[in-house]
Amino acid sequence: MGEVYRARDPRIGREVAIKILPGYWSRDAERLRRFEQEARAAGTLNHPALLTIYDVGEQDGTPYLVSELLEGETLRTRLRAGAVSPRRVIDHAIQIAHGLAAAHEKGVVHRDIKPENIFITKDGRVKILDFGLAKLQGTSSDNASTEPGAVMGTAGYMSPEQVRGEEVDQRSDIFSFGAVLYECLLGKAPFKRDSSIETMNAILTDDPPAITYPPLARVVSRCLEKHREARYQSAADLAFHLEEITEIPTSAPHAARGGRMSRPILAVMLVIVVAVIAAILFLNRRPTAASIHSIAVLPFENATGRGDLEYVSDGFSEELIDKLSELPGVRIIARTTAFTFKNKPLNLRTIAHDLDVDAVVVGKLTMRDNRAVLQADLVDVKTGSELWGARYDDVLGSGFRMQDRVAGDIGRRLGAHWNVETTREASTRNRPAYDEYLRGRYDLNQRTYASLESAAGHFRNAIKLDPDFAAAYAGLADTYLTLTGNQTVTNREEMERSASDAIEKALALAPDLAEAHASRGSLEQHRWNLRDADAEFRRAIAINPNLATARHWLSNDYRARGDYQNARRQSQDARRLDPLSPMVWSVGAMDAFDSGDDDAARAEAAEALAIAPGFSFAKFVGGVVAMDSRDFVQAENLFRQSTEKPILAYLGEAALANLYGRTGRIDAANAIIERLQHSQGKQYVSPVLLSYAYAGVGKNTEAIEWLKRGVDQRDLITGFLFRSRMLGDLTKDSRYQALIRSIDAQFRQQESHP
Q1: Total domains in the fold of the chain
Q2: Fewer Cβ neighbours under 10 Å: the N or C end of the chain?
Q3: What CATH number is given to the structural domain containing 188?
Q4: Which residues are designated catalytic?
Q5: Same domain for 120 and 171?
């Protein structure tokens, strides 16, 4: 639109193109609006595949636009010579896709992609022209519409939503791009009919003949999906898939067609085809995206070649699990289980069996310059087919934004009426703060004393960089609470106060942060305040039904009350969400053991050990079950192995003392008891462990004394074990039974007070 002149800028000796709107057009309000629109849209953009604008203005009432001078031809001119070679098509397509991605990133939707608006320079570079119909996000031009057929060729390249007069976004350009790509390959437009009305009707109802070359056919087909949700969700994703095509046909693809068959042969073939289709539909009923009710987000592959970025790929996976957990009606597998597949080959059959899920999200993180590039795919585990896939790229460190986009796109693909924007109050836009947060989550999940200390430092740094970062406060609280169970920590009360401060700050910033409510419940559990702990765990579950830790911790409340039926029910719910967590299986085994279900206890302890042969608590529980079955050799072996991890060393030591006492090795038992008492005050030794050790050698008075001390201190491990059958004959002592009645009275008193 307008007249274009070749000119020379004498100031810098550069040849330029000057586009003007002649007087008879400048009096046309619509043409003037479109000319100004082009200037505004193109003026905000800077990319090699987009026309560079140097200046805009008005001279003697004539609007003008100064741009770079292009020498070459439009794609329309090139197509008049016939179909373009596949290699050249892919090269042009990649450039166009990157240009569109740059425009879309700036909030500009072209709305008129067609061969006339694509220019090929003499040296093979591609330029996207004419942003006169562009939609600029955040301006009044958002309401400007395109009249079908007003611009020559437009009707054949409009998206279905444009034809229907609906609001459009970047996916409309992707449809138009697909139509152009199809025409480049076959030499004819996919929806071209005798009239504009027929052409637009074909866009809404018809599918063009398939292209014979599969890699290109898949790209074109996905671009031309009638429903925008089924297309590539970004031009960057489209460019990535084009760049992945390595095998390029030497001859031009063509539309699929077949020769004529005789009617008898055709009839027989038709019967066979119908029968085969019916069998496939019956035997292999593949779930659609709408029927996906359970998902596992597997650890994203760190393909950057940099080990120091492992925390980024892990962090992206973990954040995506958290965000998808808020999807209504979809079970999301917890991180503990999902990360057992880290650095393992993708075996969908194994995943389907072990996790009982409909689909998995897999991803790969790469780096280009200083940008993180994330490829994410939703895969049907039964058929291995891709239900959805997209590519995202952003400056490294803006992970919340990228995770929001991935989670939002998956949610929309599943048909969920869910707005991921509501989850952002817990997050940050401060990139260095988010980087510190990811490092903190990575260290927290290593669960060693050194890594927990490092995690606390990273979370504190994140908070310093963004004092309103609620998720960082929640992470810091989890770190402090985890540290309270470490034997090397002696300032447990100080840790709990710090955890409490962090929790309250997190909830003040994000009142509906499920993880913070679960952490507050855990803190109240540390204090033996079961009523308030219950309320917080249930609040967390109501906000996020997929939060396995809340259900797991709630089971411990029931356990403390001696209600093993409900404890096991909550453990089973936690196991559905976190089926490969050795801790969940181990606690479930203890609940089964203490409820008297020895068979279930053995089975669940064995499952915990099968999942994590090196998990110390699983070995401890396995030893308890083995000792109850009088398999003392196996019990001793497992107890010894459980002492290898410092965080549970004293648990294993106490168990060995009990075992030695019960099997007549009194001197060995007393030696351990002496070591445990000597460690008191220097490191954390739960009083219930000394009670357990003394019970083994028959010293019930000392055992009761240490148990009372644990109750008075509101000791966490005492709260978990004080009712356990593993205490043996001590549970028959009248003093023990009186102590249990006193504890139960305290719990009832909690319930009776508002």
Answers
A1: 3
A2: C
A3: 1.10.510.10
A4: 112
A5: yes
